[in-house]
Design goal:
This protein has a single domain, classed as TIM Barrel, CATH 3.20.20.100. By secondary structure, it is an alpha/beta fold. Strand 3, helix 1 and strand 4 form a beta-alpha-beta unit.
């Protein structure tokens, strides 16, 4: 942290981008606390990563009610930091959380109901030790709940002061358009959509039956786009080029499923890695720069298991520009390579 904790002016500030038509700006790279912030991860390491990120100018920190494991653990850990080291700079940070996926047992442990979303937000605020978050998201579209109820709950969160802004996550182009329309009807403005996006998972570029992609729908509505999993759960790094190492996400049975590491996908990754090295970059830096090449993408969300990994990811912002050869190589990959974990539960609906 800086010598003066109230000073959030790093020596080399990160590029900032406007979040759609809102008044918020986000750093080009944001820190996601989805993984590596559970009870099995040392708090000292979590603390080191978060404080170093803020010191480097990463002022956007993204959470959800179920991040951990167990659910709630990431918010509790981050809440400890907000109560102590980060308290003087809280108002300079953009803290976001979400609700929609399974958090607890019973009928109100997941979904898009008003009861679940608002009770979850209250619990998140308690874990974080704050009276509001800067963005509260509907984490997924829920086909069992009227969209007027889901978006209406976001409106209540904003009107009550528990959230400064409202957003949606993993909504398809069709559902994004519907959500924006409902938001106008219930009197709340959606400012952001958070979506998975990488060189191996380009679903947000693909037009639906109306001819509109998620990126198009976001631009038309003035939504910012925050892209998560730009490294495809680690596939777009050098970690899996020569097999599955012990202790990796794939080996631990996490969200990176072994079937994602097909021979065809690994061949694509090796080709992209060779091109990246030929142009003086790591594969991870290339993947981050690629996701940010579209000006409609406000920020990419990256996790980190160490300060070193965080710094390596931030180095992408000063790496050599992408070549036409690399851009063509990505265009030659099918937009859907079968690695979108969230498709059947949200983005395909």
């Amino acid at each position: 942290m800086p010598a003066n904790p109230a000073d959030l002016t790093p020596a080399h500030p990160l590029p900032q981008r406007r979040l759609g038509r809102s008044g918020l700006t986000l750093p080009a790279v944001s820190l996601g606390l989805w993984q590596n912030f559970g009870v099995a991860d040392a708090f000292a390491t979590q603390r080191e990563i978060v404080l170093h990120a803020v010191d480097r100018g990463v002022t956007h920190l993204d959470l959800a009610n179920n991040y951990g494991p167990p659910g709630g653990a990431a918010e509790e850990s981050f809440g400890r930091l907000l109560a102590r080291e980060l308290r003087p700079v809280r108002d300079e940070l953009v803290v976001t959380t979400k609700a929609g996926y399974r958090m607890g047992p019973g009928p109100y442990g997941e979904g898009g109901s008003r009861k679940y979303l608002l009770s979850s937000l209250d619990a998140s605020l308690r874990r974080l030790g704050v009276d509001h978050v800067d963005v509260f998201y509907s984490h997924r579209f829920d086909p069992t709940t009227p969209l007027t109820e889901t978006i209406g709950a976001l409106a209540t969160a904003v009107r009550s002061g528990r959230a400064r802004h409202a957003g949606i996550s993993s909504y398809s182009a069709r559902r994004t358009r519907e959500a924006v329309q409902v938001a106008a009807e219930v009197g709340v403005e959606l400012v952001v959509t958070q979506v998975s996006y990488s060189m191996l998972n380009r679903w947000i570029e693909v037009p639906d039956e109306s001819g509109t992609s998620v990126l198009d729908a976001a631009q038309d509505a003035g939504l910012g786009v925050v892209a998560f999993s730009p490294l495809a759960q680690g596939m777009l790094t050098d970690r899996y080029l020569h097999g599955t190492p012990g202790g990796s996400r794939a080996a631990r049975g996490g969200p990176l499923r072994p079937e994602f590491l097909s021979d065809e996908n690994l061949e694509r990754v090796r080709h992209l890695d060779a091109l990246a090295r030929a142009h003086g970059r790591s594969l991870a830096s290339t993947a981050i720069a690629w996701a940010l090449r579209d000006e409609r993408v406000t920020s990419v969300l990256l996790g980190a298991s160490s300060v070193r990994q965080l710094d390596e990811n931030l180095a992408a912002l000063t790496a050599p520009p992408l070549s036409d050869e690399e851009l063509r190589a990505v265009d030659d990959i099918p937009p859907d390579t079968g690695i979108n974990l969230w498709a059947s539960r949200s983005s395909d609906l």
